[in-house]
């Protein structure tokens, strides 16, 4: 039996299984079933690994089976904004069937990607793989599954290390996309040969995890949150409970140090595992901001672009955790809600008060709000007027480094 015939049979069986999963742990009952079915344990609250843990749900990195079935139904009905969002994906350069990957053994990335020896190539190739994987999962067009497989196979045959000052961040950016692409392709019957899957697993374990696991506690907070996001996604793909638990611990420590709430006290929570403590050190770390109010982020006075990355990485991690039965969304609710409403207000045109960044901010959150908006407004029914206005003005959201196609995947997602 030839590969195409085998693949077609696998795809049909996989689609049946995919739809059947909507009655399982990630799709049963209400939209909150996944999180209420497996509440945070006392061990987890205290940062300890539980004595036993449930198996991982697949596909379960950012996008799950129930979401795929929901989006496919909306697309079959020709409904908006999913129709326009898919058209945006389809017409993008990342979905080109003549895409040629450019893998390297050593990806060298300095500050600001200078030097850029394979940095943008790896980010673009990983996003192309995820784009193709999404299109395959939603349309069952085998050409896109094959293209995603080809890109991932090309890199897993070559990549051996990331080097220079941006190595960890680069690993996070690309690792997020690789994990999402690989998870979709592996668990939707796309026909990825087992030997190729094992090689990709090996590369994620030996090249990516060692860069991500230590985190980057002294860097601006978006770094460690992006690394946490990638670590969790890779952990799910590898069925690696220890790496998953490490990501959860990193998230729980970093988000409170990234977004301020008045309940923290007069000063922000210090970044974990650093000596950045005391008023002078924290004000310097918070870009010179000396007055702290609900929703302010550690990088707000740097620019909203990097702040958006940090908030989005926290949201993406929470969404993957939700698919695995852990409700980080609830744990981060007030910080993420306050942060999104504060920052989108200024992106929407609200005048900047003098207390904030001496009256001047660099706006532009980018496509960094859809997941949290869908969770808190869509699933939980919380009013988010500024974020709603921002979504209406800027969607459909496209691609930005490790963020891709979230109007398509997460508008009204169950």
From TrEMBL:
GO terms for molecular function: lyase activity. Residues 1-28 form the signal peptide. Keywords: Lyase, Signal. Residues 125-257 form the Alginate lyase domain. Residues 26-58 are annotated as: Disordered. InterPro entries: Alginate_lyase_dom, Chondroitin_lyas. Residues 26-38 have a biased composition (Low complexity). This is Alginate lyase family protein.
